[in-house]
Amino acid sequence: MFRRLLSFASFALLASAARYPSYGTLQTTNSSGVLNVVINNTFSSVNLFDEHVMSDLANLIETLQANDTDIHVVVFSSGNKDFFLDHFDVNYFFPGYASPLPIFDGGIPTMLFPVAILWNITQLPQATIAVIEGRARGVGNEFLMSCDMRFASTSPSVLLGQLETSFGSNPGAGGAMYLAQQIGRGRTFEYVLSSTDVDALTAEYIGWINCAFDTADALHAYVDALAKRIALFPLAGIAGTKQGINAASRPGLDVIVQDAQDVILRLEARPEVLAFTEKFLAATNNQSIGPVELNYGEEVPKLYN
Ligand SMILES: *[C@@H]1O[C@H](CO)[C@@H](O)[C@H](O)[C@H]1NC(C)=O
Ligand SMILES: *[C@@H]1O[C@H](CO)[C@@H](O)[C@H](O)[C@H]1NC(C)=O
Ligand SMILES: *[C@@H]1O[C@H](CO)[C@@H](O)[C@H](O)[C@H]1NC(C)=O
Ligand SMILES: *[C@@H]1O[C@H](CO)[C@@H](O)[C@H](O)[C@H]1NC(C)=O
Ligand SMILES: *[C@@H]1O[C@H](CO)[C@@H](O)[C@H](O)[C@H]1NC(C)=O
Hints:
4-stranded mixed β-sheet, globular, Enoyl-CoA_hydra/iso, signal
């Protein structure tokens, strides 16, 4: 399926400031060593993780990997009050879909491009923090798991989940593996196999997120202070500390490839997965804001009736 997409090769000649096309879905500001990144996919009412967001994230990663900025901490938040970052654009799986991005990553050839984006985020020398106001499901939650720290507001719009099992598929970028490390094996099976939504207080209680705050102000004030404090310290020390924590708490690259990514590549071609995906596209009016996108955990059993 992924092989159908356009090759990146033809874009290599256009190399200028940014390696991949820029779509403006990430608004960045920085001061005191902290880069604030607001994710706002203006091509989507649900902040879809689509080629626009992927392209902009890959460019951002390349900038941060160079270690030549003053940035020591990256804080990701959302410009969409209902969706921190939604699932993968499932149109990707259908014939005729074209993307300006490569299928597999140029630098990590065993990894699909979106999987490499998340892996690379875990590898960044900078500390990464997610500020969650809104839903994050599927790859949106896998993005959260690839950040070093997660903080949320207790707003009812915060709902976290891996919804892939309900499609007949699996979290292909390793989200369930990270969760198993983070919240334990039994709870990961419970939440991921049932493709349910977890609210902020539950997520805090089980350790899916670091902390939930009653107000947006308290959330932002806490994260701002934490980010500024970490940013005081030398980047090499932050990167070195991350290396050890990653080694102790993150699935390996080959494990993600074999037991998450290659599994989704196999499953996504199955007829029942494509049939459910078509049903989902119809029920969401092509992934637009509405009851199914907003309340997926509640709505998904109805799609099986
Ligand atoms: C941080 O801000 C400075 C000054 O506005 C700018 O020159 C620099 O490119 C920014 N860094 C990043 C990584 O966005
Ligand atoms: C940036 O730092 C990381 C972590 O220390 C290192 O692995 C990487 O090679 C560095 N990148 C460059 C371009 O120097
Ligand atoms: C996000 O983008 C929408 C347009 O899709 C715009 O109306 C909104 O103001 C943006 N939000 C932020 C915080 O930039
Ligand atoms: C991931 O990082 C590698 C370097 O380790 C780089 O070659 C590759 O282009 C990056 N890919 C993305 C999608 O960020
Ligand atoms: C659905 O949305 C995608 C973008 O996410 C677009 O490429 C596609 O053409 C749309 N399909 C329909 C049937 O509107």
